Amino acid sequence: VASDIYMAWISNLYQTIAGYLSSSGIIPPSLTTDERNDIQDPQNGQLIYNIDTGVDALQFYQVSSGAWKTISYT
Fold it and tell me: What is this structure's pTM?
């Protein structure tokens, strides 16, 4: 539904702007795995927070491998 896509886009935009304006750190956009996979031409080092159940992790895109990598917490 177009309205759901628009609301998700607005939410992600807000989170991104809030991250840039925060003095406590950044807030990367929160995306599901499907939303992440829908990103056209991801850039090297592009950062997202994957909110899918069982994932919930920071991920970045690595051009050399053509894959999203999860940042380890351990």
Answer: 0.65
Q: How confident is the model at residue 13 (pLDDT cuts 50, 70, 90)?
A: confident
Tokens linked to 2: 């177009």
Q: Please give the backbone phi and psi of residue 27, each rounded to the nearest 5 degrees, phi first.
A: -120, 105
Q: What stretches of 1-74 show up as alpha helix (H) in DSSP? A: 2-21, 33-37
Calculated CA dihedral for residues 42, 58, 22, 11, nearest 10 degrees: 60
How far is the CA of 71 from the CAs of 45, 57, 63, 65, in angstroms?
Answer: 11, 7, 15, 15
